[in-house]
Structures are given as C-alpha cells and as structure tokens.
Amino acid sequence: MQILVTGLLLGGTYALIALGLTLQYGVARIMNLANGETLVAACFVAFWLFTVVEVNPLIGMLAIAPIAVALNWLIYAGLLQPLVRRARNRGMLEVDTILATFGLLFLFQGLMLLGFGGGYFSYKFLAEPFLILGDSYGLNRVVAFIAAASIAALLYLFLYFTRYGTAIRAVAVDPTSAQLVAIDVPRMAGFAFALGGALTACGGTLLSTFYTFNASMGVVFTMKALIIVIMGGVGDVRGATIAALILGVAETTVASLIDPGLTLATNYALFILVLLFRPQGILGRASA
C-alpha cells in the first residue's frame, strides 16, 4: 500500500508535466524536445523565489505560469510558426520542429548551466510527515499531488466544457476539418503550445518542492513526458493522466523492490509494450 500511494503521489506530478507536452504535440503538432528545460527553469525560479524572496512556491506558481505562457508564445510565434507555415505535411513539420527544439534544448540548458552551474539544488518546503492509512509520507509530496490534481481538473473542465476548449480539441482531432467550421487553427495551435508550456512550468514548480534537481536533468523529464503522451494516446489528456499514474506506480515499485537504477529501464519497457500491443494509446482509438 505504501508503494502504491507513493507511486500515485509521484504520478500526479508526472501527469501535469505530460499534459503540457500533450497539448503541444497533440494540438500544435510540435514535438517539443525542450519541454524538460521549461520544467527545470521553473524549478530554478521557484528555488530562487523561495530562498531569496521567501515566496511560497504555490504562490510563486501564480507568477511562473504567466511568464511561461508568454515565453512559449514568443517561441512559437518567432521560431516554430514559420516552420508550420512552410511544412507541406505533418511528417515534414515533425522533423523540422524536432530539429528546432533540439537546438533550443541545448541553448536553454547552456544558459541554466551558466547561471546556476552543474550542482544539485533543493530546498525544504513542508518537509514534515503526513499520515495516510497509517503510513507516513512527505507533506510536500501530498500538497504537490493535490495542487497537480486541481490544475489537471481545471484543464479538463476548460477543454470539455468551454467553446474555446472544444475548438482546441477539434484542432487536435483534425486541423483541416476545424478550419471548415471557422476555427482559427494557427491561433489555437499557438495558444495550446503556450498553455502546454505553462502546465509544464507548474509541474516543475511542484516537483521542486520535494525533488533534487540540476540544470542538466531536463532531457530525462522530456523522455518521461513523451512516453506518457504516447502511452495515453496523443492529444488525450485523460489518457495522459492515467499513463502518468501507471508510470509513477511502476517506477516506485521497481525502485522499492528491485533497484532504483532500473526506473528508467522500466519507463522504456512500458513504452515498448504499449507500442507493441496498443500503439493508439490507453484511451486512443485504432485508425480506420
């Protein structure tokens, strides 16, 4: 039971990180390999706000999220939208954006290494025990899970119960058909990319409250997010959430019962199993 609860608490934060990439890849058709660097940058900003300005990370998230929206919108408008316009098909767009965001990955990583060095950082926030079913867990992990679940619930309500959210889902399903019903596809794609960056930044802020981080770990979280997106079904926020919880429980089980060094191998094993037996994802539909 302790392994299960710990895995779910970790998976809740993973879900928020993966939802950002789900919007960027599923709606904007941008495979953002710099997604993990957005997460790490948010970790450093939260760390600075807490240790220097003495701002609660949960409150600091209210400033980090809008900044992430603005920066990701600028990246989309200045770098990625020209690639979208010139792409003749989805395959060409994916190749171009993978190469572009691959370069961004090293640019952002280099800037963070220059500013913070290669050391590991952490800070104590709500580092006290919290009892669940008689077992003790870190209060910071519990609060991070509740915050992540609340943000994911708000995203679900926005996507499924507002006209703007419906337009975003329509673009995710078929951009060409969405244009036929007067949906501004480029605008929706840009907004989805910016919103995805904000979700990833929120996930990074919450992760920093209980996780030791450094400037070079973004690649690992980009891969985790990509695995979750594929497992859940591209563009499906519900599938991504379920896949993130499964991944969190699987990682915790292997780390607790076998070897912590095998957690990344567990991620890839799950990824390969999904590709072999359910390539459309957990909640995805097979192509006709």
Strand percent estimate: under 5%
Named CATH topology: ABC transporter involved in vitamin B12 uptake, BtuC
Number of helices: 11
Shape: globular
From the helix content, strand content and strand pairing, which structural class follows?
mainly alpha
- The succession of helices and strands, N to C, reads HHHHEEHHHHHHH
Mean pLDDT: 85
Helix content: over 70%
**Spatial sequence of strands, sheet with the most strands:** 1-2
Spatial gap, N to C terminus: 41 Å
Low-pLDDT stretches are none
- Total domain units: 1
Largest sheet: 2 strands, antiparallel
GO cellular component, one term: plasma membrane
Family: Belongs to the binding-protein-dependent transport system permease family. LivHM subfamily.
Organism: Bradyrhizobium jicamae
Main location: membrane
Map the helices and strands.
Elements: H1 2-26, H2 35-53, H3 57-86, H4 90-116, E1 129-132, E2 135-138, H5 139-161, H6 163-173, H7 175-180, H8 185-208, H9 218-232, H10 237-257, H11 263-277
Antiparallel strand pairs: 1-2
Helix pairs in contact: 1-5, 1-8, 1-9, 1-10, 2-3, 2-4, 2-8, 2-9, 3-4, 3-8, 5-6, 5-8, 6-8, 9-10, 9-11, 10-11
